[in-house]
Amino acid sequence: MTYREDSCATTGPARYFCVRFDCGKVNLQGALFCALLDLPYVQASLHLASPASTMNTLSGNVIQPAKELPILSLSILVGLVGLLGYSFYNSLSRLWLYFWNTNQYSHGYIVPLIAVVLLYMRWDPSYLESIRRIAPSARLSGAVLLILGLGFRLFATRLGMETPDMLAFLPCLAGVVLMAGGWTIFRWAGPVIIFLVFMFPLPHRIQQAVLIPMKNVATTCSFYLLQLMNFETSREGNILYISGIPMGVVDACSGLRMLTVFLALCGAVAMLISKPLWERIVIFLSAIPIAIAVNALRITSTGMAYAWVGEDSDWVHYVFHDNAGLMMMPLAMLFLYLEIALLGMLFIEEKPSAVRQLQGQSSNKRKPDGSPERE
């Protein structure tokens, strides 16, 4: 069924309008709805924008067309991401073929899974509409970011740097998303792309520069904790002697793995939690002291078990030495929960009360001469 609107304007603030329906072969001519309307009054009372919208509401025959998915734009975006992944396959394949099979970076498998969950939880269906209209600045900025990422990869490949070669995938991915998705899609996926950095191994020099200080900190904290609990403890470098039983703090006990995993978890929490930006930064950076404290507790508990049961006990090796890291993760999450709760109690966001909102609404009411209206 279609309709045609015939408007009959007259002088003054009023006008006639009528609608004629054409239904198949039958022409229902005549004025189905024709009235003299005072437009300002009707629009103010019925909250209508025009007589045409009035007829659309009264007739009930107008159906809003469903918005179609931007299939072409989505296909270009997915195709470019797939092409980029194929070009980096020779570098990225070393992640699951080698690095993720080591004890230090065995957490790498869960990082892409968490990234998918983050993308799903941050998604808004209104983002699809932004793909239809991509600003030229987004295309230009994305192309520049892609070129810089490819140039960095060529530089890293020329010098034989394995980890920087893999890390070049992230700026290239960000450039493709910005160029083919626009600023809205980039703001949605950008933080998650940065989150993917936790699935890559650290460069060897950076890893060694971090391992040595972390081992010293873990050894020192455990040494003082054992003495505080009245255990006879002495120290030689990174070796602790608990009641004469030696216990070495090796690279696996440095806490680097715990720190990497917990940084990733805190980053995910910071992206999802509804807090001010500075609180999110504090939550993310708090992963460092929490991971160090939890690792020190793990070493301390292992030393206490050595002193009570002995170093030759298979049960002590299995529970405290081999699997204590898994038991420490719930403790770290508990510390993170307590931190978020403490921040929520110390810094309370002031929300406008109902009385204040009513006062603001009454202050906005004005008479035609500009003076406040009294109720």
What does this entry show, briefly?
With 375 residues, the chain is of the alpha+beta class.
Order of helices and strands: EEEEHHHHHHHHHHEEEHHHHHH
Number of domains: 3
How would the global form be characterised?
Answer: elongated
Could you tell me the number of beta strands?
Answer: 7
Please state roughly what percent of the residues sit in beta strands, choosing from under 5%, 5-15%, 15-25%, 25-35%, 35-45% or over 45%.
Answer: 5-15%
Low-confidence stretches: 1-66, 367-372
Radius of gyration: 33 Å
In terms of structural class, how would the helical and strand content be classed? Answer: alpha+beta
Distance between the termini: 48 Å
Number of helical segments with 4 or more residues: 16
Helix content: 55-70%
Largest sheet descriptor? 4 strands, antiparallel
Estimate the mean pLDDT confidence: 77
